[in-house]
Amino acid sequence: MLKIICKPLLPIVMALGLTGITTVAAQAAPLTQQSFQQVLQEERSWAGLTTRTLKVGDIEWTYSEGGDKAKPTVMLVHGLSGSRDNWNRVARYLTPYYHVIIPDLPAHGDTKVPAEFDLQIPNMVEALRRFTEAASINKNLNVAGHSLGGAVAGLYSAQYFFDVQSLLLIDSAGVFKSTQSPYLKDPTLLRDIVVTKPGDFDKLMKIAMYNPPFIPSALKQEQEKVMIAQADNTRKVIEQLIKLYGYYTPETFALAARAIEAPTLIIWGKQDKIIDVNVVPELKGLIKNAQEPVILPNVGHTPILEAEQLVIQKYLPFLQKAVATPNPFAGSAP
Fold this sequence. Notes:
Layout: E1 2-14, E2 17-26, H1 33-46, E3 49-56, E4 59-66, E5 73-77, H2 88-94, E6 99-103, H3 121-134, E7 141-146, H4 148-159, E8 164-170, H5 182-185, H6 200-208, H7 217-229, H8 231-247, H9 250-258, E9 264-269, H10 280-286, E10 294-296, H11 303-306, H12 308-323
Parallel strand pairs: 5-6, 5-7, 7-8, 8-9, 9-10
Antiparallel strand pairs: 1-2, 3-4, 4-6
Helix pairs in contact: 2-12, 3-4
Pfam families: Abhydrolase_1
Keywords: Hydrolase, Signal
GO molecular function: monoacylglycerol lipase activity
């Protein structure tokens, strides 16, 4: 039997992304995968979210949805090896004011794709576009992305600028000239942070978070099992990233970034070890409507869990202004 003993939520890392989880204590019986899923469901409910599914072509999407459908839509995109639950702590502050959609990306979380599905970022963006069309949320969309999800959100915003109202990038992946990160200079190192065996989860937390929290061992073990089960898909995505870094250059990345028209807010953890803060001025210089970036001290790669209240304090006023500003490209779709 599980007992919810406190809120707000306790973060759990998932590779370059994370999952936030309600703080729990296992009493009597050990934590099972079924009760672990119940904990996740409790957290989604606390954030004002419910689970939905939608089949689009050969992809069976699973996503969280919350808020009033009559209000502007915000779509939140998670990072590598993460899931929709990465965003629960942020979504809690959005659902009272906005319609919120958080999909599990292809081959992540509970979204199912064929074994041969192309996991390169451009194909994920195209699949995400088909999802937004099928869900009827493709117009006047406010897009936010964390880590790898930032690269997906950025490319989506560049390609579909006539439908994107605003963009939020949090510790976003990209091909940068100014990076000092070993993981960006040599993306093959990403292979070393895949959780494939017991103990890898602790190692990952120390890399992804500046000040990792205490997590009850039963909860940690179940999360680690989930990540080990997803390791093959994580490897596939990483191999595609390695290929991408092999043929994309900072110049080709810049072309895509310069095509972003939407007002853009950039938020970064100052102590990010995976995508270092040195790239922020470069990214801001590429995006024509980028606001002054927000740098969060004593925060690592995961501000959406390490400092979600600081993220929301900056994002809500930005979002309010963005949705009130007409998109000059609306209605100009090719």
